[in-house]
């Protein structure tokens, strides 16, 4: 285990796979959807699944489970347009709302019948619940919250990398003697797959084989999570984040001011959240959110690995730090060495003037 990418190469030692397990072929992505919307992490995983399937020379499949109807079938077509070769479709009125028992039964049945070698699920609330119970039922390995997926061709196995020891190290886990190899990945860790509306593929239907009386959990009412007013960092295009370098909570207002002018979300490091300067939903990093904005402005942030893993895939990173040797300058696109309390208001004013000129010209 090491942070060093060179040393993170998968184990090369060849392990003979039980012939029964060698029959497992193909990469699957579970397509998570709720109330007519597919969770974007499913399409991010489809992009990653495509790469893994191509490397192994096998098919990529989407798994769609839901109530019978046009909408559920539409998700199958979308899975194919996002890169799958085929889609396994399980339709049953029991699957209208997510419940652990029928989804676990349905997905384990599909796995036992069609035998995929890799099964990827988003590390969402639903995905974490489902992946754990499916892996336990199938008695196979599950690597949670992966940051990188690769194929160890020597062993034909999934090499799933994730932070460990409090995020100070990255380790690569291989599941050599069990199938399928399961992994969950948090939203925004992988890039979204490209969409091709001319792509076609097969749909294989499979019954759930349960009746409502077999299920203990009942859905009495659907109460949507009230997202109004909650930070939406994961899918923001611009994020302005502040760290301990801002010294005191009053100075964090400078982050809000710049974010307002840019129409950005506000992020923060863990110490800032722990100090109560902002709510926990705004923490970026290993134990917070993973983000992938077009622009990430980091002020007074050192760039510790636990913060870095949550934001390093941003398209452009601008770091403001008074220490020219701060680690954040090792991976920032642009670095500004100086006092954040001076630079932030200057940037806010410059953007305000620029944007009002653009508006006037428009
Ligand atoms: C298990 C675990 C999980 C963790 N998860 C997370 C996580 O999810 N997210 C996270 O962020 N951290 C996380 N951490 C904490 C992480 O290790 C770092 O401690 C943290 O990211 C540092 O936050 P910071 O950059 O705000 O503070 P510091 O590391 O203290 O850095 C402050 C920076 O501000 C600069 N500075 C000082 N004064 C000024 C000024 N006037 N103008 C400009 N710059 C200035 C300094 O040079 C310094 O680089 C985790 C730690 C552990 C052990």
Short structural summary:
By secondary structure, the chain is of the alpha/beta class. The protein folds into 2 domains: 5-214, Rossmann fold (3-Layer(aba) Sandwich), CATH 3.40.50; 233-361, TPP-binding domain (Rossmann fold).
Structural notes for this entry:
This protein is of the alpha/beta class and 362 residues long. It folds into two domains: 5-214, HUPs (Rossmann fold); 233-361, 3-Layer(aba) Sandwich (Rossmann fold). Helices cover 29% and strands 23% of the residues. It has helices at residues 19-22, 40-56, 70-81, 100-114, 125-138, 253-262, 270-274, 305-311, 340-361, and strands spanning 27-30, 33-34, 37-38, 60-66, 86-91, 118-122, 142-146, 148-152, 157-164, 169-174, 181-185, 202-205, 238-242, 265-268, 295-299, 316-321, 334-337. The strands form four sheets. The protein has a seven-stranded parallel β-sheet, with helices on both faces. Strands 14-13-15-16-17 form a five-stranded parallel β-sheet. Strands 8-9-10 form a three-stranded antiparallel β-sheet. The chain is globular. 41% of the residues are buried. Residues 1-8 have low confidence and may be disordered. The structure holds flavin-adenine dinucleotide (FAD). Flavin-adenine dinucleotide (FAD) binds at residues 166-167, 243-245, 269-272, 283-288, 300-302, 304, 306-307, 310, 320-323, 326, 339-341.
């Amino acid at each position: 285990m090491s942070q060093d990418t060179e040393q993170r190469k998968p184990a090369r030692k060849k392990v003979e796979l039980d012939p029964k397990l060698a029959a497992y072929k193909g990469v699957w992505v579970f397509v998570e959807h709720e109330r007519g919307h597919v969770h974007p992490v499913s399409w991010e995983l489809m992009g990653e699944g495509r790469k893994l399937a191509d490397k192994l020379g096998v098919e990529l499949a989407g798994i769609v489970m839901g109530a019978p109807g046009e909408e559920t079938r539409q998700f199958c077509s979308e899975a194919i347009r996002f890169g799958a070769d085929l889609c396994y479709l399980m339709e049953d009125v029991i699957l209208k709302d997510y419940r652990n028992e029928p989804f676990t039964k349905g997905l384990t049945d599909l796995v036992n019948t069609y035998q995929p070698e890799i099964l990827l699920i988003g590390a969402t609330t639903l995905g974490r619940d489902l992946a754990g119970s499916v892996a336990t039922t199938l008695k196979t390995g599950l690597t949670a919250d992966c940051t990188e997926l690769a194929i160890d061709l020597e062993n034909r196995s999934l090499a799933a990398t994730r932070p460990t020891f409090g995020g100070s190290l990255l380790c690569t886990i291989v599941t050599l003697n069990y199938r399928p190899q399961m992994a969950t990945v948090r939203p925004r860790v992988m890039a979204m797959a490209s969409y091709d509306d001319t792509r076609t593929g097969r749909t294989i239907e499979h019954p759930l084989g349960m009746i409502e009386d077999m299920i203990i959990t009942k859905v009495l009412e659907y109460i949507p999570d009230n997202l109004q007013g909650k930070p939406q960092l994961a899918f923001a295009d611009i994020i302005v984040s502040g760290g301990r370098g801002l010294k005191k909570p009053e100075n964090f207002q400078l982050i809000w001011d710049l974010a307002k002018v840019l129409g950005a979300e506000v992020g923060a490091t863990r110490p800032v959240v722990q100090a109560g300067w902002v709510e926990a939903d705004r923490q970026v990093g290993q134990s917070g959110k993973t983000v992938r904005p077009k622009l990430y402005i980091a002020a007074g942030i050192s760039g510790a690995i636990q913060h870095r893993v949550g934001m390093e895939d941003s398209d452009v990173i601008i770091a403001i730090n008074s220490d020219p040797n701060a680690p954040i300058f090792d991976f920032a696109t642009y670095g500004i060495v100086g006092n954040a309390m001076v630079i932030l208001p200057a940037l806010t004013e410059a953007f305000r003037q620029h944007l009002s000129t653009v508006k006037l010209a428009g």
